Amino acid sequence: MSDDPGKPVALDVAARAALVDRKATCPFIGSAVTEGALAVRSSARDPLASVEDVRRLGNSGGGDLGDLLVLFASGNHSLMRGESGRLDRPVAPGLFSLDFPGSQGAHPGHSGILQGDPEKLDSGRFSAADFARLVNRAKDGWVKRSDVGGFIAENLLRDPSSKVFGIQAAELLAGDLVEFVESTGSALIKRIFGSDEDAGRAHRELKEKLTKLLGENNLVGSAGEFGLLFAFLANKPGARRVDGEPALAVDDLRSMFVHKRLPEGWERWRKSRADWVKNTTALIVSASRDYHRSKGVS
Q1: Exposed (0-12), middle (13-18) or buried (19+): which is 171, by Cβ within 10 Å?
Q2: Does residue 119 lie within any of the structural domains?
């Protein structure tokens, strides 16, 4: 590891690809690392990235999605590998760990596309079979949002260790998420990046609430992850709706999940926190209904 954990490290193509495959198991972050849009810091073994860099990427095109990405990065990836071999050592201020499997953000009932055992470090890998389970739901090359909700429900049903609330609790939690991001979240985010002397306390409060909302229910956590994907692509030129719903292009999914490449022109369109709220809450409701319908619960 570099004496300065915030110093970017030079990686050859093979080392960068291995890092993305095994560690940075997020289609957005992994693709940004592959393309050099997000600098890797510290070392290839214990990779870190800058929260300001990820905020800049998410806010590209004039949006504010990056402010939310900072909260995910700080709340779920604030620990790096310690002497125990687990993620139990705090990262330096302003950084987050790129070791996603084994982190607080990894959870049961995940899609299986980019990650194996969520509790095991370096367990990332690409699963063609799990990717096919997602894209086979497409209609004319587009996967609509409710079908992604069905995919989330299927993932949870396949994993007996998943934690899922009842359908009414999920819908109430979706409402809490809207209120959190659109009101309290908005006020606190301004304080975090302003000069208010209470910014540190506000940041902790925000991370704790977001972690609680997304961590106590694996369905909600998965919806939040796919909600980020919908928010990232919502304003891409040529974006479509299928049966009145937002939809993801299979070509974009293949680019990010398989080839680890961001869609062309991604830095020019607006990506917003509001789109994350709308899509995440809709995914919570549709996934919850599909999950409980499969369980025989009305």
Answers
A1: middle
A2: no
